[in-house]
Structures are given as C-alpha cells and as structure tokens.
Specification:
By secondary structure, the protein is an alpha/beta fold. The protein is 27% helix and 44% strand. The strands form two sheets. Strands 3-2-4-5-6 form a five-stranded mixed β-sheet. Helix 2 (62-79) runs parallel beside helix 5. The radius of gyration is 27 Å and the shape is flat. It starts with a strand and ends with a strand.
Length: 250
C-alpha cells in the first residue's frame, strides 16, 4: 500500500524584538526628555500662535498642550523599552521658536548640565511643534427600503485631518554629537457620518482633542524610531495530518 499524509497550516502569535530605525550608542541607557518647542516671551511667534488659534478655531494654546502630549507619547512609548530608562526633568524651562523651524542647537555646556542634574546619558528635546487642521464635508445619496418602497436620503460624511510637524533632537554630551535630528510629519484622520451636516460634524472629536491626540501619536512614533520594541507577529507552521493507506493495483 501507499501512505498519503495530509498537511495543514496553523498560525500562532509570538513576540519578537523589532530593532530601532537608528543607532544609539550602547553607553546611552538613561534619557532625559524635555519640551523646547514653545516660543519665548516677547517672541513675535507667541502672538502669531494666539492669532492662528483664534482664526483656525483650534483654541488658544492648543499646540502648547499638544506638544506636551507629544512628550507624554514619547515617554509612554519608551517606558516598555528593553533598552532605555527615561526621566522627565521637572520645571526645566527651555524655549524655542514656537514654529516648525528648528532653533539653534542647545549649548553643550547646557546639555551637560541637564544630563548631570538628572543622571542622564543623553538629552532628547522636542525642538519644534506645529499643527495644521483641515476639515471636509461630503454628501451622497443613499437608498433604503421602507414599507416595501425605496426611500432616498442624503448621508453626510464629516472628516478632520490633523497634520502634526514634530522636530526632535538627541544630544550626546560625552561625544558632543547630535545623534539624531528628525522631523516627523504625522497625519491623524477621523470621519463620521450623519443624516444632517450638523449631526456628522458633531460626531467628530473636538478639534482641540484631535490635535492633542495627534501630538501623542507623533511622540509614540518617535519612540519606535529610536528604541527596539517588542511586537506581536504571526507565524505559520505545518502540522502533519492523519495518514491514509490505499492499495494501488494488485
């Protein structure tokens, strides 16, 4: 007789360590993280940001709150890192341009002082933060059956797209080197439906909440750039099935 074996595939989820996108020297284990994206007092950009917030409907100082959320997102993203410890200096007041333009790098003396004060091996600064919001409203005709009749109505779709521009730098005080200077432009998008324009728009998150959510998301994304992370992946494997013996010929 001849034996036939059937093979099946099964899958299981396993945790694997995904490497970081960039190389950070092995001696760097503790990171101090701070916000330098806010404009200094007397800086014309502070007034511009207030006017922009009023015109855009984002509310006053929404970028300030969203930049703080970006720091929280980065810290949260690194807390489960197998590579880094994180410290957030309390009351550290560093001012930047308040726009999407990078300020001049922080002096190495200041970087060294901050790292020494907080027992950190390197300093990560959110150097720039800016957000732009676009809203859209679309409509289309829909038909449903009601009492065996076709009823046509207008369905509205309201959407909001938040573009966040976050610029980060990592300072290595020992080698007096900027390890990374990177701008992330992240989009976060929501859309909601309704039977009226107002219903569709009211189903969207508040604009200020949407901007803060996008800021947090951008911080989490930067954490993935600089740190290895445990992720779940699916793996397929073969399972040997039952053998069947058949007699072929005589």
């Amino acid at each position: 007789g001849i034996g036939f074996f059937s093979c099946k595939t099964k899958s299981l989820s396993v945790k694997v360590l995904k490497p970081a996108d960039i190389f950070v020297p092995a001696n760097i284990k503790t990171l101090a993280i701070a916000n330098r994206s806010l404009p200094a007092k007397g800086n014309g950009n502070q007034f511009r940001n207030v006017v922009e917030g009023i015109i855009s409907g984002e509310g006053l100082f929404v970028d300030r709150k969203a930049s703080e959320k970006a720091i929280s997102g980065l810290v949260n993203g690194l807390q489960n890192s197998p590579r880094f410890n994180v410290t957030v200096p309390d009351g550290l007041n560093l001012k930047g341009t308040g726009t999407a333009t990078f300020p001049a790098p922080l002096s190495w003396q200041k970087v060294r002082q901050i790292c020494n004060n907080y027992s950190a091996d390197a300093l990560i600064l959110l150097e720039t933060f800016d957000s732009n919001t676009s809203r859209h409203l679309d409509s289309q005709q829909k038909t449903i059956k009601k009492d065996n009749k076709d009823v046509t109505y207008t369905e509205y779709t309201a959407s909001i797209d938040i573009a966040v521009n976050a610029g980060w730098r990592i300072y290595d005080p020992v080698n007096r080197k900027i390890i990374d200077q990177n701008v992330y432009i992240d989009h976060k998008y929501w859309d909601k439906k309704g039977r009226t324009k107002t219903e569709a728009e009211n189903n969207l998150p508040k604009q200020s909440d949407a901007v803060k959510s996008a800021g947090y998301f951008s911080g989490k994304r930067y954490a993935r750039r600089i740190s290895p992370a445990w992720i779940w992946v699916s793996r397929h494997y073969y399972v040997k099935g039952r053998s069947e013996e058949r007699r072929v010929g005589k």
